[in-house]
Write a structure and sequence with these properties.
Helices cover 49% and strands 21% of the residues. By secondary structure, the chain is an alpha+beta fold. The two termini are 40 Å apart.
């Protein structure tokens, strides 16, 4: 079960939105406006330079697993609680982002139930255990010579 939980943790999907701008100064100004009550959707539509459909959708990037994001973006998402946004601009190769986590992470729709993979996981654990035993035997034999 621990191995399964570890594997599905990587497959969780996150519902986020963002605003992408060219400068840290502009991103900081937008964060201040958002903290003062401005609408994330309105500011994203007006200022975001993300050329995907996300800008038309108020910055909404929909549900995605973490592995699709670049490291800086992913790291920022992992620090957020639902409805929380970054309080400092997140710099990436694309510019400066303001990121908001909209909902709690959920398992990917592609996650296979535990019972369907249990036998395979048990076999994988046995193989790893046997590899460790063989490695220990080799090390003991080598050190005894």
């Amino acid at each position: 079960r621990a191995m399964y939980k570890e594997q599905i943790a990587d497959a969780q999907e996150y519902h986020v939105r963002h605003i992408l701008v060219d400068s840290e100064k502009q991103a900081s100004e937008l964060i201040a406006q958002l903290n003062a009550g401005a609408s994330f959707k309105v500011l994203a539509k007006k200022y975001s330079q993300d050329h995907s459909s996300a800008t038309k959708n108020g910055g909404d990037l929909d549900w995605s697993p973490l592995h699709v994001w670049i490291p800086e973006f992913k790291d920022a998402i992992l620090l957020l609680q639902p409805k929380q946004m970054t309080q400092t601009p997140v710099k990436t190769q694309f510019g400066y982002h303001i990121i908001q986590l909209l909902e709690l992470p959920r398992p990917s729709k592609y996650t296979v139930p535990f019972e369907e993979v249990r036998v395979g996981l048990v076999e994988a654990i046995k193989i790893e255990y046997n590899k460790k035993l063989i490695q220990q035997a080799i090390e003991q034999t080598t050190s005894a010579q």
